[in-house]
Design goal:
By secondary structure, the chain is an alpha+beta fold. It contains nine helices and 16 strands. Helix content is 23%, strand content 28%.
């Protein structure tokens, strides 16, 4: 099948009643309350996205990252971080540290959770969500491709940067989770197992809001991303952190000494694999974006997943087939 061809994907579960409001809320960085603002017409979004495609988004994103690393004077931290939290709907009561403890905006944005505020399934064979976010497209992989939006799909080989890696998931399933500014931005292992490979794949820094997902071909497979493959007792899982506009960088604390510069492609096969328990920290978005999960045929997606619904770290997402 030629690149860019669209295949027929099985029908997904019907989206929830609040899907449109949730996606508008994602674009604005918080859940919508009441009627969402009228969307731009597709032609308007194409014009905006076309302009962004020609803009130096990589450099702008790195500048944003540098600004986020700048020290904030102590007296300004609490009012600044509380104002941001109110604007986007973030819950500061879940933070492991108080606002005054964060010296930079990046430290605040990548804050860890208090112990006990998230739970995982009691059955260790069940995969849990690696992040807080909003459930996006999900379903069966068809002919090595996953659905990005209605009428748009992408090749797993392009997403992972390797056809051999993609072959693990040829008969499996995929799940997309979007992270808004209100969400917790660390990425955890959905299953316990061995971290076998880690790849940094340079690319664009296009936005990943609803309009971009609907209109831009190969968005997830074209943006900068980090892909990790976990080999678990029950099967194989890939966790792909996809960057976006203003995402300064994607850290990989699970890999000692990992340092990926934006233009540099890196592929590491870990021998022996790095052992991770379910729930261990894997990656972190320095300003956030999207996670795509791939499961091999040993898993089936949890039937409770609904597109447009909020999901929390540890919520069940897949079970042994």
């Amino acid at each position: 099948m030629h690149r860019g061809a669209t295949i027929e994907h099985p029908a997904e579960q019907a989206p929830g009643k609040r899907e449109a409001a949730d996606l508008h809320g994602q674009f604005r960085g918080r859940e919508s309350s009441g009627r969402p603002p009228p969307p731009l017409r597709a032609a308007g979004w194409r014009l905006i996205l076309g302009g962004l495609a020609r803009a130096p988004l990589g450099g702008l994103s790195r500048l944003t990252g540098a600004a986020a690393d700048a020290a904030i004077p102590g007296p300004l931290r609490v009012p600044l971080f509380r104002a941001f939290a109110r604007a986007v709907g973030a819950d500061l009561s879940e933070s492991a540290r108080p606002p005054a403890a964060f010296e930079t905006f990046d430290a605040f944005f990548t804050r860890r959770l208090r112990p006990g505020v998230r739970s995982w399934p009691t059955d260790p064979s069940v995969a849990g969500s690696p992040v807080d976010g909003v459930v996006g497209r999900h379903g069966a992989v068809v002919e090595g491709r996953a659905l990005q939006a209605k009428g748009r799909d992408y090749a797993l080989a392009a997403l992972l940067g390797d056809a051999t890696e993609a072959a693990h998931f040829a008969h499996g399933s995929y799940l997309t989770i979007y992270l808004a500014p209100r969400h917790y931005h660390r990425v955890h292992a959905p299953v316990g197992g061995g971290l076998a490979t880690t790849r940094h794949l340079p690319g664009r820094r296009m936005p990943v809001h609803a309009a971009a997902v609907a209109l831009l071909a190969e968005l997830f497979a074209g943006n900068e991303r980090v892909a990790c493959r976990l080999d678990a007792d029950q099967g194989t899982v890939a966790v792909v952190a996809v960057g976006a506009t203003n995402v300064g960088r994607i850290g990989v604390p699970a890999v000692p000494g990992w340092e990926a510069a934006a233009p540099t492609a890196i592929a590491k096969a870990h021998r022996p694999p790095i052992g991770l328990d379910r729930g261990d920290e894997m990656m972190v978005f320095h300003l956030g974006s999207t996670v795509v999960l791939l499961f091999d045929a040993a898993f089936r997606l949890d039937p409770g997943l609904k597109r447009g619904a909020e999901i929390r770290l540890g919520d069940p997402i897949a079970r042994p087939a």
